[in-house]
Amino acid sequence: MIQPSPLPNPVPHIFLGCVCSISSTWSAVSGTQTDRQTDGERESLGRQLNYCHGYFSVLAVVLKTNNESPSTDEFNKVELSCLIESISTINPRIEWKKITNNKPSYVYFDKKISGDLENRAVIREPATLVITNATRSDTAKYRCEVTAATDAKSFDEIVINLVVRVKPVVPKCSVPKSVPFGKSAELSCVEEEGFPKSHYQWFKNSEEIPDDPKTSLKFFNSSYTLNTGTGTLRFTAVRKEDAGEYYCRAKNDAGHAQCAPQKMEVYDVDIVGIVLGVLVVVIVLLCITVGICCAYKQGYFSSQKQTGNNYKVPAKGDGLDYVRTEDEGDFRHKSSFVI
After folding, report:
1. pLDDT per residue over 97-145, tens digit each?
2. CA–CA gap between residue 70 and residue 93 (Å, rounded)
3. Pairwise CA distance, residues 263 & 173, whole Å
4. Class for domain 62-164, per CATH?
5. What class, spelled out in words, does domain 172-267 have in CATH?
6. Which residues form the signal peptide (predicted)?
7. In 30-82, which ranges are E strands?
8. Predicted TM-score of the model (pTM)
């Protein structure tokens, strides 16, 4: 009977990053001499493979999180979970970084909370970050990093995207007090504090105005466009039925706020009165113009101007010499007086 060739010396095999010494069971791995394997050999191989797999799992640091995109309202508590699934290093190094505009900054380093979260966060063992009083500036990406020096895979990290919702403040509303019938009108509503960005609703007499007037019997005859993203309500041609009290509401996932109602009136335009008024003004201006022209023709606006060149000083008589005495009315001719 032909004897089987002797088994080779034990050869080290790398299984999932683990070094195992497999000798008599090499044929099960290579696929040779399968028929001659005993049940004991197969069981021994299985134990060795299971041992190697378990040995690998404790030589690698592995992280996971319960929520990759947590969200909360402003001033509430929020948890950024960082769970260590497997690790063999007793005291791993744990760090948290906040990433804003692709620039990381420490918020937990050397077992201390720092940076933006100082005095507002704690670490819950082993590596979960709990923000006790979240603010709008905390909206960002956060990275949990764990370094295990004695593990074969010594580093792992997870990134968590945090959103802090901010409730809208009272919006600024602009409603025209009066609009002529048939003219256009624009109502505006603005709010800039809410996060995520607010969307807007308009109400008339406490009833919500639909996006499309044709979907409501009450607004069917109105002609307007409503932009819920910018808060603008624009009437293309105002009707008498559009008069009423209007107010706007800004809302997002954190809540809503609204402005006080403002009244808008619609008045008729008196076309006949306007035409008569224009005619009266034209007639008055025409009469004034004719009067001015007649006055010029009659010479009422002509005048004689006397200038310094036209004025002549009276000349004294030659050879006359006037002598005033003490008595104003008594005077005598001197001998030089010539008749």
Report:
1. 999 999 999 999 999 999 989 999 999 989 999 999 999 999 999 999 9
2. 24
3. 12
4. mainly beta
5. mainly beta
6. none
7. 62-64, 71-73, 78-80
8. 0.59
